[in-house]
Amino acid sequence: MGVLIVEHKLGFIHANAGIDRSNIDQEKDIVLLLPEDPDLSAKKLSESLSKHFKKNISVIITDTMGRPFRNGIVGFTIGSHNIECLIDERGNKDLYGNTLKFTQIAIADELAAASSLLMGQAAQKKPVVLISGYKFMQSDTANAKTLIRSEEEDLFR
Amino acid sequence: MGVLIVEHKLGFIHANAGIDRSNIDQEKDIVLLLPEDPDLSAKKLSESLSKHFKKNISVIITDTMGRPFRNGIVGFTIGSHNIECLIDERGNKDLYGNTLKFTQIAIADELAAASSLLMGQAAQKKPVVLISGYKFMQSDTANAKTLIRSEEEDLFR
User: Fold this and answer.
1) d(CA A140, CA B127)
2) For residue A84, which of A137, B6, B91, B117 is within the disulfide window of CB 3.0 to 4.6 Å?
3) pLDDT tens digits, residue range A47-85?
4) Cα–Cα distance, A114 to A112 (Å, whole number)
5) Each residue of A77-133: pLDDT tens digit?
6) Closest chain B residue by Cα to residue A150
7) What residues make up the domain containing B110?
8) To the nearest 10°, the Cα dihedral for B112, A11, A7, A74?
9) What is the pLDDT of residue B17?
10) Considering the domain boundaries, does residue A3 fall inside one?
11) Smallest Cα distance from A46 to chain B, Å
12) Which residues are CB-contacts of B97 (< 8 A; sequence separation ≥ 6)?
C-alpha cells in the first residue's frame, strides 16, 4: 500500500489518481481508468443529453485528486463541453477601478469541487449532479485542456 | 510585473497569494494581507454571528490561489470554526464493500470553491456567501490547519 504521484498521458498530475480500484468489483482483476478522451466524452454526453431533453446542456466530467501542499482530495474537471472552463478577468476592473493583471478563474474546477460535495466518494451512488442557475459562458470550442498548465509555464516545478 | 510563489508563515504555499493589491485604493501605499490568525478570526465571527442570529453558525474564511499543474485560481479555506474541514472516509466501504484506504475529502476547500463562484474576483461586492442545506460535521476544536500538508508528508515536494 503506497502513494504514487502520476503524470497521466492526458496531462493531469496527481497523487493516487487516474487508476482506481475503488467502486469496482475487486474479485475481478481489473482497474478503473480515466476516459481516453474526456473532452470527447463530454461532447458526446452534451450532444445526446441536449437532444434528449431539448435543452442546451453543457457537461463537465470530474474526478477527485490529491494536491501538493494541502491535505484531502477535491473534485476537479477532467473533461468538458460547451462551457468556458477558465474565466479571464485580466483587464477587468476591481472595486477601485484598478485593472486586474493576473486573475483567471478556474470556474470549471470550482463547479467540479461543488458537485463533488454532493456526489461523495464512498457508496453514495450519485454519479451525476445537475447544476442550474449558474451563469457560465458557453462555447462550442472550449474544453478542459485549458485547465492544464504547460510545464514551461509552471513555476511550481 | 512578475509572479511569486510564496510560502506564507501560516503554511500556505501559493502563486501570487497572501499579499494583495487588488480591491484596495492604489493611491495609498498599502497592501492587503491575510488575517494574522484566520482560525481565530473565524472563531470570533462564528461566535458573534451565532449569538446575534441565535443560531449555530459555522464559519469558513476563504481566499483564492493559483495551483501547481493547473491554470486558474480556485477558492480555498484559510481559516474555519465549528466545521470539520477534512472528512475521513478511510475505513468506510465503497459500493462493492471494499474498504477505502486513502480517501480524505477536503470538504472545506470544496465549499470554499463553491462559494468563490458566487463571490467573484473583481467588483462583484459579495464578500459573504451563506451556505445552507449542506450536512457537515460540527466540531468545536476543528480548524483549517488540518488542511495544510506537512512538508514531511508531501510527496510532491
Assistant:
1) 32
2) A137
3) 999 999 999 999 999 998 888 889 999 999 999 999 999
4) 5
5) 999 999 999 998 888 887 777 787 777 999 999 999 999 999 977 667 788 999 999
6) B69
7) 36-147
8) 10
9) 63
10) no
11) 22
12) none
Q: How far is CA A9 from CA A14, A63, A143, A148, B90, in A?
A: 12, 15, 17, 12, 28
SS3 of residue A74 by DSSP: strand
Are residues A154 and B68, on separate chains, in Cβ contact within 8 Å? yes
Complex prediction ipTM: 0.89
Q: Is residue A55 part of a domain?
A: yes
Tens-digit pLDDT string for chain B (157 aa)? 466 677 888 888 877 667 777 777 778 888 888 899 999 999 999 999 999 999 999 999 999 888 888 999 999 999 999 999 999 888 888 777 878 777 799 999 999 999 999 997 766 778 899 999 998 999 888 999 999 988 777 777 6
Residues 6+ apart with CB under 8 A from B85: A72, B77, B106, B107, B108, B109, B142, B143, B144, B146, B147
The pair phi, psi for residue A25, each rounded to 5°, is -70, 115
* Cell reading at B75: 477558492
CATH at A76 = 3.30.1330.100
Instruction: Nearest by CB to A75, from B75, B85, B110: name it.
Output: B110
How many separate domains does chain B show? 1
Q: Are strands A13-15 and A19-20 parallel, antiparallel or unpaired?
A: unpaired
Contact B3 A155 (CB under 8 A): yes
Residue with cell 492526458: A10
